[in-house]
Amino acid sequence: HVTGYVYNPNPFAIKGITINGVLRDGSGQIVSQGMTTLLEMLEPQQSTTFDVMIKSAPYSTYQLYVQAEPK
């Protein structure tokens, strides 16, 4: 699991928030990945928690990618 908070810094609400997570090995290759979609809308300056399930694998780094659309 990768858990954390997602924050909306925009002056408008956002929806359809998708968080993708990848684990990378020492050479930068993706060794595992996962994603989650948040059902709630985030108002400006609001945050919420997320939990991305990623199958465990030996890794050196991880990256998170967040996408959303205006309300």
Which descriptors would you attach to this protein?
single chain, 71 residues, mainly beta, three-stranded antiparallel sheet, two-stranded antiparallel sheet, 5 strands, 0% helix
Overall description:
It contains no helices and five strands. Strand 2 and strand 3 (30-38) form a beta hairpin. It starts with a strand and ends with a strand. The protein has 71 residues and is an all-beta fold. Helix content is 0%, strand content 59%. The model has no long low-confidence stretch (mean pLDDT 96).
Concise account of the structure shown:
This protein has strands at residues 2-7, 14-24, 30-38, 47-52, 61-70. It has 71 residues and is mostly beta strands. It starts with a strand and ends with a strand.
Whole-Å distance between the termini? 28 Å
Shape: elongated
Helix-strand string: EEEEE
Rg of Cα set = 13 Å
Count every beta strand, where a strand is a DSSP E run of 2 or more residues.
5
In the predicted model, the low-confidence regions spanning at least 5 consecutive residues are: none
Helical content (DSSP H or I, runs of 4+): under 10%
- Oligomerization: single chain
Return the average pLDDT rounded to an integer: 96
User: In what order do the strands lie side by side in the largest sheet?
Assistant: 3-2-5
